[in-house]
Amino acid sequence: MQPKSNILHLPVYQPGKPIEDVKRELGLQEVIKLASNENPFGASPKAKAAAIAELDQVSIYPDGASVELAEALAGHLGVRPNQIIFGTGSSDVILMLARAFIVPGDETIMANETFSQYKHNVEIESANIVEVPLKDGKHDLNAMLAKVTSRTKLLWVCNPNNPTGTIVTNDELTAFLKQVPSHVLVVLDEAYCEFVDDPAFPDGMKLLHEYPNLIVLRTFSKIYGLSSLRIGYGVGQPETIGFINQVREPFNTSRMAQAAAKAALGDQEHVAYCREQNNRGIAYMTGELERLGLPYFPAYGNFVMFDSKRPSQEVFDALLRKGIISRPRWANYPTYVRISVGTQEQNEKFIAALEQVLQESAVRK
Q1: Within its chain, how far is the Cα of 141 from the centroid?
Q2: pTM of the predicted model, to two decimals?
Q3: Which are the contacts of 141, defined by CB distance < 8 A and separation ≥ 6?
Q4: Which of 310, 278, 280, 281 lies closest to 294 in space, CA to CA?
Q5: DSSP per position, 243-279
Q6: Residue-wise over 272-293: b if at least 16 C-beta within 10 A, else e?
Q7: Dihedral over alpha carbons 274, 159, 17, 51 (to 10 degrees)
Q8: Tell me: the pLDDT tens digits for 280-306?
């Protein structure tokens, strides 16, 4: 039996290489993974305890509507519970958006270097994809606006952008939203927003009441450190959320994930600690990249994308042999490598390994 013709050549999402694989393949005892933008400081102890407590109920289906978590999150965000939908990570909400709103022949607009799952999911629904080049690593909102037609259904803005780490400001975003036609749903992906402390950065939640064609995506995978529990969410107008809910799989988030997410919300001290440590890590890593003469994009998330001035796959392979897992191979930035912020010890080991790689590369030349 043959699958749909439009998925025959779709690439499969490639996560950061697992630590266990690298240890086994290269015979290394210590491997540091800085490839998947995970939180090196882990989840709140309160979140861990809440997840463990749910093990006594592991044989019982979770609340499909995530009522308790929705109420807690709504209070935290200043929205109503019926404005929220949960998914198995925000990537699940991306899938649901494509399924709910895209039919074959529709158009969707996105940056040419951004989170790959936007493109992946709308390709499955046979949409026509319009990719707009980033400008200095940043979304070119005016160019994206110029591509809108009567057939455009979804427009994706990742802020901060993954993989470049750049942001669009509140003034830039609001000027853009004022001009987007009402028939276009703007998806504002704020997966890394909790790391940003720049006053110019927009808060998508404050824009929802003014722009009914806006939906905001966020996640508990990043600063909350719950990546393996897989829980993210979308926030929009109740009608929009209702449409998305119609294509949601039943019980798509677990009891442990819901309990841990609710407890994590109640520990904003841990969030503040992770933000502070991440800021220190960004400052250290960008300072070292400057010392090494390697340009980088302004970093607002928990990762830095820098120009290695060499084919990124070569740098990745060389770093891997030294026990550092990074993220290479960006179609529009072939010499750039994305590196996640780790603990200070991990960051220092990465810089030491990178410096060795650069020196070895210079000798070969």
Answers
A1: 19
A2: 0.94
A3: 157, 168, 172, 173, 175, 176
A4: 310
A5: HHHTTPPTT-S-HHHHHHHHHHHT-HHHHHHHHHHHH
A6: eebbebbbebbeebbebbeeee
A7: 50
A8: 999 999 999 999 999 999 999 999 999
